[in-house]
Amino acid sequence: MKKRTSVQFYSSRSARQQPKSLLLVPALRVEKLSHDGRGIAYWQNKPVFINGALPSELVKVDITSSRARFFEASVTTLIEPAPARISPECEHFASCGGCHWQFVEAEQQLLWKQQAVIEQIQRIAKTEVETVVPVIGSQPWGYRHRARLACRVVKGQLHLGFRSSQSEQIVEVTQCLTLVPQLRQLLGPLQDRLSSLKGKRSIGHIDMAQGDTALGIALRLVKPLPETDLQQLEHWATQHNVCVWLSYGPDHELVPLRAEQPETLFYSLYNEEIRLNFLPTDFIQANPYINEAMVKQAIDWLQPFAGGALLDLFCGIGNFTLPLAKGTGADITGVEVSKSALKRCLHNAQLNGMTNVTTYQADLSVAKPLPRSLKGKEFSGILLDPPRAGALEVVNQIAELKSQRVVYISCNPATLARDTAVLVKHGYKLLKLGVLDMFPHTAHIETMALFTR
């Protein structure tokens, strides 16, 4: 049953920092959502992007920013709520900068995410999708296997939690519904232990992660901790069966706290046939349930075959590289800017007995980024999984590689649409498009697109 006991509004940090508007704005009817999850209404012939508003709602707003082509606003009064609005589950919803779509029914979240991607493709890329595949959904809570905690000491008191939606302050959390239970249960004991350290002011932030068989945290330090603190941390880590790494200095190298702890964490893919080692500071997908489905769908769409060659751009530690190489006989080339990630990728390939993986280091955000050694090579398929900025420079070079299939995994519908326009210009058509709900209760949209020619 839907819970409608109260109405709370999420407001972005940027909106809350703006002064109160003196503009007298009438009640606005929200018509649709932007790709970043804000409601869109219209006033004075300009769009108004409204934090905390849903389509069909009638709201009173405060204008937080007035631009030449649009306004930005936040809800002050909800006059007519949308049928999809529900009460948030989390007690920190109104202040935490995290899951700001908790007030939307889960099924409606998926529908609006899919609509947002298609609208961006149509509007920016000026093309249509031949097949929109069903959304791959996630369990709504307890899905997150990694997180970064902010840390700050104010008047001698350590505050540990997530960034506030309203300021740079930290919202202390002793429970987070999105975290897997093992990490969630660690929040309170971790806060207690760190608060007692003499060198707690040296802690910048904390990365925490769950592997298949162990929990791990990495403390980013501005200077080393005193020996007494290290002893207390070691006792705590042993008591709670947690692997702890310390990081300080310009190279951010991680040093294990205990000699007897594992060198790394790991997660598995393909029913534990593939093992990928990682550290809490490495980039891995936070939602392993969606990641497993995403990897399988990417392989299905790329159709690797023995004797073929595939190019994995933004390959990281090998999340797609290794599954593509496993059992297909195809030669896989991975390209990544991070030296540490490439080192981890090659180590993971060796760990899994794979000899058909080659890697190159290259900054894929610069003009003509692909290594010269790849020129003239033909790849039967290309996979790219760029950051939010997209892969504009790379897609301008993809046509030269003569690949028939390109799988593009995106975390930003706007840059996906922009890059789609470039691929279409080079003769590709958008054959398939599908949304993956990597982060339920947020406006974050993970999308997979298949281009063919």
Automatic annotation (TrEMBL):
Tell me where in this chain the TRAM domain is found: 16-77
- Its encoding gene is what? rlmD
What does this protein's UniProt record list under function?
A: Catalyzes the formation of 5-methyl-uridine at position 1939 (m5U1939) in 23S rRNA.
Q: Does the keyword Iron apply?
A: yes
Give me the residues that bind [4Fe-4S] cluster, please.
C90, C96, C99, C176
Q: What is this protein called?
A: 23S rRNA (uracil(1939)-C(5))-methyltransferase RlmD
In which family does this protein belong, per the annotation?
Belongs to the class I-like SAM-binding methyltransferase superfamily. RNA M5U methyltransferase family. RlmD subfamily.
Q: Which residues bind S-adenosyl-L-methionine?
A: Q285, F314, N319, E336, D363, D385
Which reaction does this enzyme catalyse, per its entry?
A: uridine(1939) in 23S rRNA + S-adenosyl-L-methionine = 5-methyluridine(1939) in 23S rRNA + S-adenosyl-L-homocysteine + H(+)
Which of UniProt's keywords are assigned here?
Answer: 4Fe-4S, Iron, Iron-sulfur, Metal-binding, Methyltransferase, rRNA processing, S-adenosyl-L-methionine, Transferase
Q: Which InterPro entries match?
A: 23S_rRNA_MeTrfase_RlmD (IPR001566), MeTrfase_TrmA_AS (IPR030390), MeTrfase_TrmA_CS (IPR030391), NA-bd_OB-fold (IPR012340), SAM-dependent_MTases_sf (IPR029063), TRAM_dom (IPR002792), U5_MeTrfase_fam (IPR010280)
Which GO molecular function annotation, any one, does this entry have?
Answer: RNA binding
- Give the E.C. number(s): 2.1.1.190
